[in-house]
Amino acid sequence: MAYSLITSTLAKSTNSTDVTTPGVDTTGANLIVVGTFSLYSSGDGGVLSDSKSNTPYVTTEDAVSGRQLFMSYFFNPSVGASHTWTFGSGCLFPMILVAAFYEAVTSPLDDQSSATTTSSGTTLQTGQVDPTEDNELLVTVVGSTDVSATGVYAIDGGFTKLSDNTGTSGAAYSGSMAYLIQTSAASANPTWTVEAGHVVATRIKTFKGTAAAVVNNYGKLIFRNREYV
To answer: How confident is the model at residue 222 (pLDDT cuts 50, 70, 90)?
Structure first.
């Protein structure tokens, strides 16, 4: 079985200090990926939590000109209806992006890369990742100080972009998330297109997944190295 997207959601702060997503039904998911972008204020620069009392793997922070992009994931979490995520405390102008998937394996994180810019350019590559297995999930997040209501993000490389999180002046930065489900392992270095003249950060992570089922020469199904009649 290949990875599948269960649901996704996003939110932006309305008070400039914290943000909570709308509730979604994550039933069936065993990998949840979360991206946040904000201005550092104090302490840890922000705390991520959810309504199911799960503990996130906060493995990366990309800092540029006082801004910070966090990309976290939850593996095999408690899931269900009305699932929400909150980010705040120690940051300003936060936005949050969430996507829930099924078919991750134990210790799913495989590779990752990141990039930041403060230039006036309109494109930014994530940095190359090299998945080591077939059937991996690639997820990338981008965050920007752009607070234009019309700011729209684009990405190449065959990635599927989820909804853009547009910013709000004085309350929240903007960003987007995209994913790619590979059948055969291949290097990837997608390019985000962004609004010019802003501080931007992006990161990409790859996650190992369950091997796809195949039929052998005798017409029998092979799945997870087991043969089925």
So the answer is: very low
Beta bridge partners, 4, equal 102
* C-alpha separations of 136 from 99, 160, 180, 188, 207 in Å: 15, 15, 8, 12, 5
Closest-CA residue to 179 (of 194, 162, 193): 162
Show the tokens assigned to 225.
């190295």
SS3 of residue 125 by DSSP? strand
Q: What angle do CA 48, 50, 54 make, to 5 degrees?
A: 95
Q: What is the pLDDT of residue 217?
A: 55
Burial class (CB in 10 A: 0-12, 13-18, 19+), 192: buried
Non-local (6+) Cβ contacts of 71 within 8 A are 33, 34, 35, 59, 60, 62, 112, 141, 203, 205
Q: Where on the phi/psi map is residue 30: left (φ > 0), alpha (ψ -120 to 50), or beta?
A: alpha
**pTM confidence score:** 0.92
Quick: pLDDT tens for 146-174: 998 666 899 999 999 999 999 999 999 99
What Rg, from alpha-carbon coordinates, does the chain have? 18
- pLDDT, average across residues 184-207: 96
Which among 76, 57, 66 has a CA at the least distance from the CA of 143?
66
